[in-house]
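Margin note from the TA: students keep mixing up input and output lines. Inputs are the sequences; the output is the structure of the whole complex. Example:
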Amino acid sequence: MYFIGLAVGAVFALSIYWLIKQNKKITWWQWLIALIATIALFAAVQHFYGSLAENDTKAAWVGMGIFGIIAVILGVVDWRLIAGNKEKV
Amino acid sequence: MNISHSTLSRRDFMKGLGLAGAGLGAVAASAPVFHDVDELTSLGSNVNKYPWYVKERDFKNPTVEIDWDTLERPNANNFKSHPRPSAADFTAAGVVGGNMTDLETPAEALALYDYCEKEFPGWDKGYAGAGDIRSTALDNACKFMMMGQWPAEIYQGGKRINVRNAILAAGGTATFSSFLGPQAATTIRPQDFGAAKWQGTPEENFKTLRNAFRFLGCQDVGCAEIDNDTVKFFHKIKGAGSGFNTGEAGGKQIAFKDIDEAYETADEYAIPNKCKYIITFTARQSFEGTRRQAGITESFSVWYCYARYVKMICHMQEFIRGLGYQCLNMSGLYFSNPLSVITGLGEHGRMSSPAIHPKNGTTNRANGWALLTDLPVAPTNPIDFGAYKFCETCGICADACPFGLIQKGESTWENPAAAKNGLAQGQFKGWRTNNTDCPHCPTCQGTCPFNSTSQSFIHDMVKATTTNLPMFNGFFANMERFMEYGRKPQWEFWDIEQPTYGFDTTA
């Protein structure tokens, strides 16, 4: 749980910092994508360490890959979409 | 322009409202349902602290369909009923460790060597056919007084004494566990002193028993009343070698009678009709030990259960006697799977012998050990967490069986193993294992997808989905195979940090 909190917290903090710096308008569905990406990141890290604790090594890596790729793709897509938004006036 | 009001359009608002409504609907559909105040003040629907997705069903209406009219009391459990080869037979066939063999034939033992060597390249059958020396040593250590058996020759005061023979010579039996319980001189009853028996409501009694069971080391407890249907899960006669008094030939009648006190004679176990409360409990095995069994027999995880829980039954019999009531040990006198299912300790599944438990899968030893008592106990209902439906499409255990003895395909009313297991056709729509030829090898018990612990969130998510959306069962079964959950190399057991007794006792 320590690593899960650390990873998700770090990504969340960096994202908020970036958003404030960009001063962008964000639509509700961009928030939704961000939420799903965050959940996927949480799932990837939790599943990885949980499966290692269960002594299921292959499951740990496969799950990390599946949820991690979802998190990365959604995160990058959302980032580029938000980057293209107009700035707040 | 500075926006100080909501930019949400009416259309978006309605869309959001619809999504929220659908979400609430899904939660309501899968959540436990409140019926009335009586239900609230009784045991409640989750006395065993099952996960939220486990649903309760009506009494005698489990997920497995049962034809109560066709069902009949079987004569006896024919488990272990084939003739046992001698140690010399095993040696002649090339099987090492003849004394370590359990129920297998020499041909089955050799097949198991091959199976384990292929499943875990590098696995060595060791000097006794049970794997590495540490596993073999723990196997044998855990067999001490297993099934309540008095030891044969042991050291007593510096001399080798055959305790078993001494007790048999004194008119005793081969096991310390028995139908009527120890009834030790120290286990006094209130009525013998003119005091009143313990008086509690059935709900209080259930909680009392559950706390005692958990104090003694078991996890979950169930209860049902015997009626004209549920009595059919008890055998008519005791089989040879099963349950207590394993040295006996079997054949004693199991009779329900209108009597006040239970008794046992040379040819009968007499059960008072008032002892109509069936109490079942789970006997958990080490999770890692169970899925790391390899070789010719099950493992120390199994043997230690039989050593520990048989003694626990004696403690429970003495406890209930101390409350002023009778408690009868029915070990080997019933089918554990249906009693477990009827009392809500699990669901019937493909493996058929062990019921599938919502938290531990098949890592309980014969999920649902049973006692009978005249202490009124509130019933627990059958449960549904999607296991039965999952088994329809899974079949991992049947694929893993080295001897093809677990029924494959969809559930059936027909019993393809009827000629072997002696059960009549058309009694229930499920699966059967050929228990006569089944050597109780190490394999199937460790393969069940429901064995998974809940350290990764994915298991609870999958189980919750399975309960409510069975269309994903095939996908989940394939993922189970791909992710390589299930059985693991035996030798890794010794490098793993494990909880006391090998399982999470807080569950």
